Amino acid sequence: MSWNADGCNVRGAAFTKKSEPYLMVEDRPPGPILKPPVFHVDDTTPEVVQSVLLERGWDKFDKGEQNVEDWNLYWRTSSFRMTEHINVKPWQRLNHHPGTTQLTRQDHLARHLKHMKRMYGTPLYEFIPLTFIMPNDYNKFVAEYFREKHVLGAKHSYWICKPAELSHRRGIIIFSDIKGLLFDDTYIVQKYICNPLLVGRYKCDLRIYVCVTGFKPLTIYIYQEGLVRFATEKFDLSNLQNNYAHLTNSSINKSGVSYEKIKEVIGHGCKWTLSRFFSYLRSWDVDDLLLWQKITQVVILTVLAIAPLVPFAANCFELFGFDILIDDNLKPWLLEVNFSPALSIDCSADISVKRKLIHDTIELIYLQGLRNERTGCRDGAKGSHSVSLTKLDVGRFNKVCSALPCESLLQFTSRTFKDESAVKKAIKICPENKHASQPREMTSRKKDLLLSTREAPKTKPKLKGRRSPHKKIIPFMSLIQSRADKTSISPCVPLDNGKVPGLQAGNFVLIFPFNEATFGASRNGLNVRRIIQKLQKLKNKQHSHMLEMETKR
Ligand code: ADP
Fold first, then answer.
1. I need a surface site. Which of 253, 350, 363, 440 has the fewest CB within 10 A?
2. Which positions, given as ranges, span the membrane (predicted)?
């Protein structure tokens, strides 16, 4: 047993060589060495989470050896009970926020997005395919089905039916004929997007990681790296029964006979990293930056749909997996939001994305939580706890802060930002988007791109100074500043008493709040209407910018 500077019992912090890498939080006087942070897991905690935390110098919680409250982070796959949230201590973090199944159950998600559509108009919320919740919406669905059939005449209309809760293929049916369908449980029936962007001739969707570090006030980060999941057989609307051609879940495709084969353009396996996908798009002159911007808007609008409804809970965060399908007009469609997105490591793309994702999530929590942790230490002085950061975590934390384009935002807590140059620099980082989306070009080349048997061009693609989304895609805030709303952000003025979230942690970048107005509208209650107005304004500007670029061309 050992004692920290406050005389608190810090079990397990033996003064051995092992304790050398551990530092105390900065507002403590130098003195005896503290214990490393402790993570708590259960049988469902992904292996990669444990191994990353161990690699960072954390200790694993040991029930037998340690006091029940002697842990700093509890990471598990299932949600926590409300009592666990209520009893969380200032030095502790939970990896789930209460109430988030409102997003992650497909029927709830559909209901909330429908409500937002009704409240704020269809154009903003047109990213979810037309959806019916069965069995309640059965009559509405049948009416729509026959209406469409009438309009399309001899052409088929395509629908997908999915269980409302975690399916992973169970019970997913794609159909164009309503005959023989029975809905004995809660299902959703949705318009099947039958013009997906194909790579080679394979359908894909994007797994975008999003971390909400708080709902009150709402704070959303997007991860700039992610996964692209491919179907392993060629897309073919004449055979709707072939799951390997229509579903992109890796859990399905890795058991297919074509998984190991070298497939046209996509190669072996069924996953790419997001950065590989974006660089592929750039090689076809697609405006990946604009696409990314649209994706971030989908994320914000989706989270906004439930944010006012989730209960307040301190010291927790939620890592979501957004499944987004891009169609051949480069429009992102939201398919699903995953609770505890899969963190198993199946292939090299998983290795390069998921390990760093966990590292960066830990950094993000520190970035958000340092102030709280200090509070925790003070509490610890009274009780029995203290919190320390490993050298690795302290080092990375400092690095993250200094790498921030708008580092000063973080320091609103203590001082007014005097030097505007850093802000200007942040604005400049975002290149003037020389070519907005090329829908026309895409349309004319679309068939080549989507249906071609050709491989991606071997000649050096014309990048025109474009940036790779991995690491280089600019925080949404800067994008907005540079493209649309240069005057609306004035980070030289403290926005409120020190609660400005950090802009970046590893590959996570802040996407909400994205300017002073949305920052204000998310404090002291969430003013959704005002935020929607800002997003709408942004979308309009984006649209006129695109038109402008089109006419210039
Ligand atoms: P889960 O991942 O829980 O099995 P999803 O809703 O993600 O369920 O659907 C599984 C797969 O089905 C997706 O990855 C996607 O490839 C395909 N899919 C789902 N909904 C649609 C849709 N509306 N249009 C086209 N494809 C879809």
1. 440
2. none
Distance CA 60, CA 49 (A): 11
- Is 538 within 8 Å of 479 (Cβ atoms)? no
CA of 452 to the centre of ligand 1 (A): 24
Which of 532, 509, 519 shows the shortest CA–CA distance to 209? 509
At residue 453, the pLDDT reads 31
Has this prediction a pTM greater than 0.85? Answer: no
Task: Look at residue 489 in the predicted model and tell me its pLDDT.
Answer: 27
Residue 285 Cβ contacting ligand 1 at under 6 Å: no
**What 8-state DSSP symbol labels residue 307?**
G
Q: Pick out the chain residues at pLDDT < 70.
A: 1-34, 166-170, 367-500
Measured between alpha carbons, how far is 461 from 465 in angstroms, rounded to an integer? 11
Ramachandran bin of 9, using left for φ above 0, alpha for ψ from -120 to 50, beta for the remaining angles: beta
Which residue out of 168, 325, 333, 337 has the highest number of ligand 1 atoms within 8 Å of its CB and is therefore the one to mutate? Answer: 325
Pocket flag, ligand 1, residue 437 (CB < 6 Å): no
Predicted local distance difference test score (pLDDT) of residue 170: 64
Show the tokens assigned to 50. Answer: 């444990």
The residue whose C-alpha atom lies closest to atom 15 belonging to ligand 1 is 247
DSSP letters for 37-84: PEEE--TTS-HHHHHHHHHTT-EE--TTTS-TT--SEE--SSPPPHHH
